[in-house]
Amino acid sequence: MPEGHTVHRQARELRGRFRGQVVAASSPQGRFEAGAALLDGQAMRAVEAFGKHLFLQVESRVWLHVHLGLAGVWTFGDGPAPTPRGSVRLRLVGGGHWADLRGPVICEVITGPQRRAIHDRLGADPLRRDADPDRAGRLVLRSKVSIGGLLMRQDVVAGIGNVYRAEALFRQRIDPWAAGSSLTPQVWQALWCDLVVLLRDGLRRGRIVTTDVQHRSRRSGTVLAQDAHYVYRRTGLACRVCATTVLAEPMAGRTLYRCPACQRVGSLLA
DNA sequence: GCTAAATGTTGAT
DNA sequence: TCAACCTTTAGCT
User: Fold this and answer.
1) Which residue is nearest to nucleotide B9 (CA to C1')?
2) What's the pTM?
3) CB of A105 under 7 A from strand B?
């Protein structure tokens, strides 16, 4: 269940196991047999993540393009691959490692130019060095669309999903319904910097934690789930900062979470 | 054990 | 604007 940090983490897992290795590719489920045949028996050259998209290149120079959607999942392992269970769309085996892909929305083999076209329509990815936050900022600052809507647009900022949207806007005290054009450049700058901080942290941990203070389970030492977020999925509970009831409301088909008191038009800088 | 919802996108209406 | 897709998990029973 991925936002951008998950996909970057998976790219790292795939790179570590398979880069430079000859990889056997198959589709136990049968739905990707033709595609798997194009990858099978070739050395893996490169793996990269861009937003929520994953690209994997083999020596014939074609690319595997994967988008997990809501339900897609990678499973990794070392040693002999287990008997495939369930609908494994793609299995990669090589160098003593294996990886199974289930339930992706997109799993296809594409050419270099096709990959470039996908790159070109993606916005700034907070986890990539080549991200251009100024271009994203120009789009935001002259848009009448709400900042909550803009953050979900992958052609503006790539890799942000519903959790990071809710949490970053809360942390900056920005009203999600405020138009992009109502933000100042300073507010945009602060929001972008916080997205970079949050996604890097998510990449390191492997989960999204946005609160500074967490209660830990006494037994396992893990951060309790309900303390990991400020507003995401906390409908009806008291805001951690001001105790006002957290709201949930639909925005463009997704559930938006916010604190109506903390998140007014301005921001921490206003 | 079952059901509904979910960190998402696409394509039809 | 909405259903479809696919899998996992939270929250019931």
Assistant:
1) A69
2) 0.93
3) yes
Contact yes or no for A88/A6 (Cβ under 8 A)? no
Over residues A69-99, the pLDDT tens digits come to: 999 999 999 999 999 888 899 999 999 999 9
For strand A73-78 and strand A63-67, is the pairing parallel, antiparallel, or unpaired?
Answer: unpaired
Tokens of A207: 């989960």
pLDDT of res. A226: 47
Question: In this structure, what token pair is assigned to residue A60?
Answer: 């014939």
Active-site residue, from A17, A52, A171, A234: A52
Residues A253-269 as b/e (b if ≥16 CB within 10 A, e otherwise) read eeebbbbeebbeebbee
Chain A residues 216-245, Cβ below 7 A from strand C? 225
pLDDT tens figures, A196-242:
999 999 999 998 999 875 555 444 455 444 478 999 999 988 999 99
Catalytic residue (one of A135, A138, A205, A254): A254
Q: Is A52 a catalytic residue?
A: yes
Answer yes or no: is A102 CB < 7 A from strand C.
yes
Q: Per residue in A136-159, pLDDT tens?
A: 999 999 999 999 999 999 999 999
Q: Which nucleotide is nearest to A1 (CA to C1')?
A: B7
Contacts of A134 (CB under 8 A, 6+ apart): none
